[in-house]
Every structure is written in C-alpha cells, then in structure tokens.
Amino acid sequence: MKFSKLVLPGITMIAVTYGLARFSFGLLLPDLNQSLEMSNFVSGMVSSLFYLSYCFTIILSTVITTREGPRRMIIAAGLSAFAGLMLMAVTPNVWMLALGVLLAGGSTGLVSPPYGAAISLWIQRDEQGKANTWINSGTSFGIALTGAGAILLSPNWRLTYFIYAMLTLFILIWNYRIIPKISANPKIMLEKGSYSIQGVKGSIPLILASLILGISTAAFWSFSRTFIQVAGDYSEWQLAVFWIVIGIFGVLGGFSGSLVEKGGLPFSYKLGSIAIASASMILSVAPEHLFMAYLSAGLFGSSYIFLTGVLLVWGIRVFIDNASLGIGVPFLLLAVGQVIGSALAGWLIGTWGYAPSFVFYGSVGMAAALLAPKKRKEATGLPVNLEQNVTESTK
C-alpha cells in the first residue's frame, strides 16, 4: 500500500481518538464543572474513567487484532469515539457524561494495537519506522487542535463536542474506505528487541515506574487548565494556547529514540522523569505568570511523549522473549496509574488546594526517577528496527 494512503488516515484517527475524544476533557473541564455543577472530586472520578476504559479496551483490541487483523478494531475505535463525543455533547447530567467518557476513553485502547498491525501488513519494511513516527504524532496534533477549537468555540463546550463528533465521523468513514479487509486470520507478531536479557528479570522496576509515572501525570492532564484559570487573570485564548503548547511541544517527544541511542536508557528515563515532575512543580510555584504556565505546558508535553517512548524501549528490553508484553505492560500500567491519580487528584485539590496537590504530584514524579533501569554494558542503544512494528501505543 502507498505510504500516505495508510499513514494520513492513521494520523487523523489518532488525533481524534486521543486528542479530541480523550485529552480535550481537561481543557473543557472548567466549563463542564460550571454547567453540570460538578465538584473537583466528582470531576476527578469522571476523568479517571478515560484511563479505566483504556485498560480494558487495549487488552480486548490486542486479542482481536491478533486473531482477525486490524480493520475491525480501527473501525470500532472510530465508532466508540464518535458515540462518546455525541453523548458528551448532549449530556443532561453527570451520569451520561460518565458514559460518554467511558466510550471516548475506550476508543484510545481500541485504536492503539491495530495500527501497528496495519503497518506490519501493508507498509514496506524500510518505511515502517517512519510510518509509526508519523502516526504517533497524531496525539500532539489532536491536542493542539483542541486548543485551537477552544479559542474559536469557548465557552460552548456542547457545540465543541458536537463538532468534534462530526469530525470523528468523517475520519471514521475515511478509515473505513481505506483499511483493507483480509481473508485469513494472520498471527500478527511484533518484532523482538535485540537485547540479550532473558525472561522477565527487571520487570518489577518497570511495572512500578510505569504505575508511578501514570499517577504523577494524571493531575496535569485533568486539572492544569483549571488550575491556571483560578490562579491567574487569563483570557480564554490564553487558556487555550496553554493546551496548544502541550500539543506542539509533544512533537519534540518523538526524539526519544535518538536520545536513548546516544545517552542510554537509564539517563533518558531519569531525564524524562525529572522533566515531567518539574512541569507540575513549576506550575505550582507560579500559575499566575503566563511565561511560567507556558513553560510548564511545554515541558509537560515534550516529556510525556518522550517518556512513553522510553518506557517502550525499556519494556522490550525486559520482555525480550515476548515483545508484545514489552509494549503492552508499561502502557497498561501507565493507564492504571492515571486511573488512581485522576481519582485521587479531585479529592486532594478539594482538600489541600491546587498548589499543594501539584507539588505532591511533582514529588511522585521525582520518586519515579529513582526506579531507573540499570545500565547495561553490552548495549546502551535501541535494538535494530525497534520502531518498525511498534504502534502508536506511546500515549
């Protein structure tokens, strides 16, 4: 298949599922809270449903994609995102909002495994790494798009979600027409890494690091925009640009593979953990200053995408005999941590306030830096062709 014929609809599907259906919630949350009269605790619990549904659907999608190929799960992801966004647009209460959140969040888990399979099947081997890199960028483009939408549509969150739903429907139809059907049931396997580690030695630090990093990032995704709104005198467009900065700088996180290759996995992990923790710390110190708020947003956006790439490399090193586990385990645990972190964040903010809560989450991120993988003497870089069959899972 021609490179652009698969990659372009892939980028847009990732943009609408991750950017519009999942991560736009934090940007629109202040208006949602006001309209639906939600407390911080309730909004934190609702936000955690994005990650909870992701945990279940990524497992389901992996199994079905392996058995039947990628088409069914890609279409299911688009349908789930469309239905979730429509429910969120018309919701009369918190309960229907929660159902919409479950469907919207579930779309990201459904869409993560099949694009890697699609690239394995239909993109030439020497172009697969580039294809994954471009599809990965869909999340950052989607986040930036939500910021632009907020500038044009704020505070009309219902209209915003409706427009997002219509855009998702268009992207769904595009993917429906592009993704081929396959007659057989291919066993789509991800390539193993080339590290010489055996078994699951070192899996516990990987699991703990993924879980703790998930906890530490949850508050920023859900409450950072609300934090700066209540702390400073910002216009609506300045608040929206805050989100755009997260998305634009997220593109820089795509260079994680190069840094791991040059600096080694332990150094890259520690750097990313400290950077993402610093983003919450910086925001807690001076949320009312525009430069500091944007600095925090840029640091968070770039380090989040960067860290997910690092976790992918680490996972493949640990689960050398099963690369699918190497990819699935850290991102599943990252989502589990975000479930815990989102639910806890609403309660902490309601009890402590925003600044102490963000200091706490920054401290959790700093603690995660202590769980860095051990330095290996025989290999410090990326395995050969590591990115070639890795899907967009780094979200």
Automatic annotation (TrEMBL):
The chain crosses the membrane at residues 7-29, 41-61, 73-91, 97-122, 134-153, 159-179, 200-221, 241-260, 267-286, 292-315, 327-348, 354-372. Pfam families: MFS_1. It is a multi-pass membrane protein. InterPro entries: MFS, MFS_dom, MFS_Efflux_Transporters, MFS_trans_sf. Residues 7-380 form the Major facilitator superfamily (MFS) profile domain. Keywords: Cell membrane, Membrane, Transmembrane, Transmembrane helix, Transport. It is found in: Cell membrane. This is MFS transporter. It comes from Salinibacillus aidingensis.
